[in-house]
Amino acid sequence: MRKIEAIIRPEKLQAVQDALDGLGASGLTVTEVLGCGAQRGYTEMYRGTRANISLQRKVKIEVVVPQVRADGVVEAIQKAAHTGEVGDGKIFVTVVEQAIRIRTGEKGDEIVQHRIPEHWGH
Amino acid sequence: MAIAAAAVFIPVRVLADTAPDNTATQAAGVAADTVWVVVAAVLVLFMQAGFAMLEVGFTRMKNVGTVVAKILVNLSIASIVYWAVGFAFAFGAAASGVFPIIGGTGFVPRFLPGSVIDLPQLSTSTAPAAAKFFFEFVFCAVSLAIVWGTMLERTKFIVYIIFAVPFAGFIYPLISHWLFGGGWLMSHFGAQDFAGSTVVHLTGATAGFAGLLLLGPRIGKYGKDGKPNAIPGHNMPLAQLGVIILWFGWFGFNPGSTLNATQLHFADVVITTNLAAAAGALGAMAAIYFVQKSLDVGMIGNGAIAALVAITAPSGYVQPFFAIVIGAVAGVIVVFGVIAIDKILDDPVGALSAHGLAGIWGTLSCGLFTDPDLAGFNGVGEGGLFYTHRFNQLGAQALAVGVAFVTVFVLSFTIFYAIKKTVGLRVSERHEIDGLDISEHGMWGYPEQFMPVPGGAYIHPDALSDPARRLAGTAPANVSVAAESRA
């Protein structure tokens, strides 16, 4: 199994979600995060006083998939989150040892299979 | 507050000479005056909501509950203290040797329908003492609300409670007596302050200044290099709602200060008040754009407030064109004032500029722009420099500003110093970082921002009675193992 972790622009979340939905990827964890990279920050003016905002708001998505699906998912995220401007984010892929479904105790690839589950998509 | 008008201006008196049923006409006039004074007072009372929203908007989310609690508690304390002693000091009668300094009759006043109390300076208004009392009380409450704008987000709640008593009971009534109640600044020097640029706004801001000097800045306001950091308020829409509520309430504040409807002067005051506010918002907008090349939302509102503060003293004395000038200048003053003061003093809402500097400017502007005819109508002082080419009135105005500032500063600093040495002014560093809502009140102003709330929303799909509202393609039977089919 592979865990694919992507830091993306918040406004690109929906596009990425749609792309993963199109692949039938199940199970997505989304976190609002702050961070800094090549994009650096920006300056806010509040009542004449300068405030340097060095951490940008980003969204982190995490999705675990069977090894054979990893490249396809990475490609889909990269395409959907792309604008070409500095600040598009990064994708990290790591190896996952094991996965367990809490409800049933099932283990392994079976529980991170790409499915179209109930209430998924829109 | 000058309402000493020559009898010839009073239509009721003119009618009384000719109309056969002059008692009925007079009664109607009294009723009209009374209704107007009470309605205006209620408009001014609503300004408390404006101050609450303005302060809430300019503070962080962890400190909003304490702001509204403070407004309510201060309003309540002032209600009782001003009734018990404040009104008597401000407007009561006294021996001629004492009266220029302070009034002394009408403590814990008793009211009966239409009852009259000996109020020397208010005697030309036909409204009963109860209406006059309530109108003067809401001014006191406004002045007290202004004090705390400089001291938000780090002051112990007990300080609000303690300081409200001497402020509403003595400090405000003293200045009020000198400029509204017939005291020495108006009677001996003819200083003009129609509705209180100095009495209400400069007094409040000066007390806040004294407190701020003893209190110090919020944690994190100034960096190690001493440069100010921006601590943005959490809600600009609420802050600007506060501005609009204050603008609305000001139509009680200034026009109501005629204490009179039958002479019709209050309608003129409506115009000067509104024009000044408009010019102030635009003046501040232009000034802040000049400084930082963007339109700071809070500054535009501060401009309107500063202009309303500035037009308060001259509102009954000047013509519309000068109201625009006064407002526009106030809007520019507040922008540069906030930026300059922010470098050394942490004043979260900009009260020192919007109420202090604009209050000084507004009071002085009488000395420049007062229409001699209106000075005569109000029976206080004379025309301004622009009309008379004499500095008399400007000198009287400067005297009023200086005297009020020094008096209020000394009294307030003394009281705040005593509080600091006894119960303390400031919450602990731990409490300040945690926020005053949780540390002083044990609850949050915005709970769900800070803690999980039991029973919080989780919409289970089964809870939706309409199947059409479920997301498309989601029937359990349709679950397919896409990975395998596409692999």
What does this structure look like?
- The complex is a heterodimer of chains A (122) and B (487).
- Chain A has 122 residues and is an alpha+beta fold.
- Chain A has helices at residues 13-23, 70-80; strands spanning 2-8, 29-35, 42-46, 49-53, 56-65, 89-95.
- In chain A, the strands form 2 sheets. A 4-stranded antiparallel beta sheet of chain A has the order 2-5-1-6, with helices on one face. In chain A, strands 3-4 form a two-stranded antiparallel ribbon.
- In chain A, a hairpin with a 2-residue loop joins β3 and β4 (49-53).
- Chain A is elongated, with a radius of gyration of 17 Å.
- With 487 residues, chain B is an all-alpha fold.
- Chain B has helices spanning 11-18, 22-57, 64-91, 129-147, 157-179, 184-187, 197-215, 236-253, 265-292, 297-312, 320-342, 351-369, 372-378, 385-388, 392-421, 429-434, 436-441, 447-450, 482-486.
- In chain B, α2 runs antiparallel to α3 (64-91), α4 (129-147) crosses α5 (157-179) and α11 packs antiparallel against α12 (351-369).
- Chain B starts with 10 loop residues before the first helix and ends with a helix.
- Residues 1-16 and 473-487 of chain B have low confidence and may be disordered.
- At the A-B interface, β3 and β4 of A face α9, α11 and α19 of B.
Number of DSSP-assigned strands of chain A: 6
Using only CA atoms, what is the Rg of chain A?
17 Å
Distance between the termini of chain A: 27 Å
Strand residue percentage of chain B:
under 5%
Helix/strand order of chain B, N-terminal first: HHHHHHHHHHHHHHHHHHH
Mean pLDDT of chain B: 90
Helix proportion of residues of chain A, in percent?
A: 10-25%
In DSSP terms (H or I, runs of 4 or more residues), the helix count of chain B works out at 19
Summarize this, please?
The complex is a heterodimer of chains A (122) and B (487). By secondary structure, chain A is α+β, with helices and mostly antiparallel strands.
